[in-house]
Amino acid sequence: MRGLLRIVALAGVLMGAIATAGAARTPSVMPPASARLEVWGQRYLKAWHRRHPSQATLDGVHDFDAHLPSYSRESLEAERRELDRFGTELEAITASDLPRAAQLNLRLAQDNVAWRRLELHEWRPWETNPMRYADDISNGLLWLALYPTDSAARRLQFIVARETEISRLLAEARQNLQDPPVVFLEVAREAFVGLQALVAEDLPKAFKGVGSPQLRRAFRASSAEATVALAAFIAWLDHDLRPRAKGGFALGAERLAKLLRHKEGITASLDELEAMGQKELAAKEARFRDLARVLDARLSAREVWEAQRTGHPSAERLLAVAREQVATLERFVRDQRLVTIPPHQPLVVRPTPAVLPGSFASQYMVGPFEVKALPGRYFITLPDPSWDAGRREDHLGEFSVLPLWSTSAHEGFPGHYLQGIYLRQIRSCFRISELFASDCLVEGWAHYCEQLMVEQGFLAADQRFELGQVRESLLRATRFLVALRLHAGRMTLEEATRFFMDHVFMAEGPALVEAQRGTYEPTYLSYTYGKLELLRLREDFRQKEGRGFSLARFHERVLKEGQVPMWLLRAALLEEQP
Fold first, then answer.
1. In DSSP terms, which residues pair with 348 in a beta bridge?
2. What digits encode the pLDDT tens for the residues 27-44?
3. 8-state DSSP, 522
4. Residue ranges per domain, the chain?
5. 3-state secondary structure 208-274
6. This prediction's pTM
7. Most buried residue, 63, 128, 175, 299, by most Cβ within 10 Å?
8. Is 80 exceeded by the pLDDT of residue 511?
9. Backbone angles phi, psi at 84, to 5 degrees
């Protein structure tokens, strides 16, 4: 969950990452007709990685591991000028001179340049959201610690270098942050507290005894300096910025529509999207009521769900249950031949580290450009031992066994982890980098996979499994509507919290976390939008393929296209004009 908990087990998680393993990837040659655009894409991506080195690390590119980004006025202006130059170069590439696949990549690149211009000129999140800085620091440090992409000593050198830059980055944050919404400060404060613990306690434990005496002295000094800087920044958030934090979080209808158009290629109007979300929510509420009635006609749908919430594993058993589920789901996907599962590293279940942005559960793996094959991580947020019994029960209630099955399908097989396995087989930078990735396909695929398990009869003898999956669909459909309404200025944070409580049967604490997420992540409507578009595409592809259609072929075609927007996926599979 964002608002991140202090997890004592983090040091153990990091200690497991000290050993190295993996195999190099084999380079491939691009078709000559698309070489010019591909070269542009590689230069464009490298420039983005250079300016956003923490994102480069997440992508599996390590050329900039010794640095954190800069948000100084000079750096931002230089990035704008650089982006304009790339945009001019892109305009000189004629679509008619390219083969079809490269034409799709060209439009994807054009949309990306437009999206980045929107962010740099209009949205300007570094002025309103302290989480931008927390994300850059946590991603920059934690990925170097979690994944043994190099020797422990070499990675520690990069951690020292990045810790040394934290003071400079936080000084830029103080200069930039002007009038943030209070909700952004509340969420960011928890993240910075987690960061402080990571720097002061967890990283020193994880890298104890690593490197030469000189490196260890440098690490102690950089950790001390960064800890002081983070403590001072938290105090500044509390005593200086918060009293003057009166900004609004809503993007406004016009900017939201621009974001969806350029980031996701969504051309539907906000009214059309609202109607889509309302239809999905109503359909899932009706199905939920029907299932609840079958399970116990004496109780209301809410009462049936509340009875299911008590069937959760204990905090001590939660991780073991998730591990068992991942293994069972992988076997089911193989046995039912829903999709080919290529050879892969294991998916390891661990507690959520304190500074990772996420929700109750999340999946992370090394970036697609990483040359080493390393295990993925399925993180589950455990309750904080300091919580009272009521809060612990509310939190664990979100992990009742039935929806946990859907979560494991979403994060593991055939969801995100399988998606990532296929991603490592793709070569074009336009199809795999986080820079060009579509949230609607990434999250839409994983949400689609939850429903796929129900369709294919997984645990069909127990209708409580479908009840849990439909409840997950209720959550995602509610996010869809909340995102639209929050950012169009038609819903307050308090109303969004109540909306989650009413439609998803959530306790107030988890509902507030969900509502807060919608204020700074408007694209969390992507789960439902992507799932619905994949279902529509599947039927259209079925019609196109006729008797030759198979689910495995459809799924493999989707996964082999990479992290692309839905319009591009339709164009590739159906040969539609984009």
1. 377
2. 455 545 578 899 999 999
3. G
4. 32-247, 258-574
5. CCCCCHHHHHHHHHHHHHHHHHHHHHHHHHHHHHHHHCCCCCCCCHHHHHHHHHHHHCCCCCHHHHH
6. 0.91
7. 128
8. yes
9. -60, -40
